Amino acid sequence: MRWTSRNLDSIAVALLTHAELVAAALALALLIALPLGLAVARRPGLRAGLLGTASVLYSLPTLALFALLVPVLGLGFAPALLALVTYAVPVLLRALVTGLAAVPPAVLDAAEGMGLTSRQRLFRVELPLALPALLGGLRIASVTLVSAATVAAYISAGGLGTLILTGLDQGHTEKILVGAGLVTLMALLIDWGLGAVQRRLPASG
Amino acid sequence: MEWLRTHPGLFLGAVGDHLLLSLTGLAIGIAIALPTGIAVAHRPRLAEAAIMLAGALRTIPSLAVLAALLPLLGVGFTPSVIALALLALPPVLVNTVIGIRTADPAALDAARGLGMTATQQAMRVELPLAAPLIFAGLRVAAVQVVSAAALATFIGGGGLGDLVTQGLALLDTGRMLVGAIAIALLALGTEAALGMLERHLAARVRGA
What we know:
heterodimer, A: about 200 residues, mainly alpha, MetI-like fold, B: about 210 residues, 9 helices, elongated
């Protein structure tokens, strides 16, 4: 553990960069997925097309996506962020759309009968009912991002993957294990934390 | 695509390695997960534990799984295959357990009424009923393994990931793009092909 105690600051930087990548990608993805999901939720044709595209994007292997973006965007934090957003948007979009689609028609009728405008209905009825599904999507997206952000080290984005990759290059076991251990811990903690929030929500689906 | 024309041998070798890695890893993963799933499905405590363990394993980033094996097993083909097998385990295990546990109880009663032994019940009733879900697990596992096999390059496992890392190291964009596109097509092709098979299978089971 000598390497670890002498390099606590660079480990902390890697951890922080990793968290930043994940958080920024998640925030941007939410900003894109929320309006997009709301826009297509009531348009079945568009919805099918968008979800199809989304599932193709999500199936792209991490390393392939990063490599494809390099000639266009170069190396570093920004292109990595864009690639990560590409991963998170499909997950969130699918979760939101299925959540909205699962709202019972009777509830919508009741809302209309109460004289709610469509905007009121959206914010007071549909979104709250879709929240558990959206949170489930957020959980999957965060875990996927923690994992994908590790590979971002390949395009010099920093983060915990850097410890793993340089450790592999140098045959430095401790460095590899610290990187792999921290990233695993981060993924498990986020999954556990969001899972706990999910269980607290009423009517979790 | 210039690179592809000048290096067809290198490319085909990488594709071959990639497929060999993926198929071996997947086969080992299935060979462990399927019997384990069948064995624990009827023991609620064990089944819960298996599902929880699989959930945790699924959460661990692929690169971390690959990297963590290096100190134990060194570099090369074998540790890569073991890592890929580990990544294939969770979806197959979870879907097998859930598929068997959600098999129609009436069908099981009927099987028992017909005097089937436990083995016969498992082979002739439960597994066929669970087949669509198990197959969905296999599809997820296969896509994941084909994707993660691209990362095997980082622990010297070979495959198409080699083209990507070499391309970046040598600033050879052509090589990098050929690798990346091939990896992407392989993953998307696996998903599409197994997805079609899955729908076919589901239609047959429902029709039967």
